[in-house]
Automatic annotation (TrEMBL):
Keywords: Dioxygenase, Oxidoreductase. It holds the Pfam family Cupin_2. It comes from the Bacteria. GO terms for molecular function: dioxygenase activity. Signal peptide: none annotated. This is Cupin domain-containing protein.
Amino acid sequence: MATSGPSFAMADFLAGITHAVRPGRQRPLVVHDKDLELIPAGSVPNPTTLRVAGTLPTATFELFRQVIPPGESSDMQRHYHETVHFVISGDGHSEIEGADAVTWTTGSFVYTPPWAWHRHYNDSAKHPAEFLTIENSRLLGLFGLARRQSAGLATLAEARARFDDQEEK
């Protein structure tokens, strides 16, 4: 049965849908905020606080709760996977390669395309900004396509210069 393309048939697709979905029992179906696993500071180059919902039975995407302290930012990074940040609280802006700076506030969704340098800034001097971060990194990892680069707190121009020079060698 084709799931897309010229040989896709709606009747075949609908026949494959069942009313019962039985999840595996190896992991919980609910992970509470208090049970999110903190990624230790310094183990990844991103200076924000990251907690992962790693025990959920997701096979193709990863979920994080990310906090950017007042007046600070994430690292300048790029990766092969797509990412969507849902802004739980806060106000800020993002620098995303190939686009003008984008502003966001509580309730916004921020999309980061694959392999685009990007950095998220908390514009508040008093309050943290908090994201629910969803990325399809597990899916790409299944195919051996996971790749991520961090330029730390560099500017976009600095990241391009440093990493483009490395790739040409």
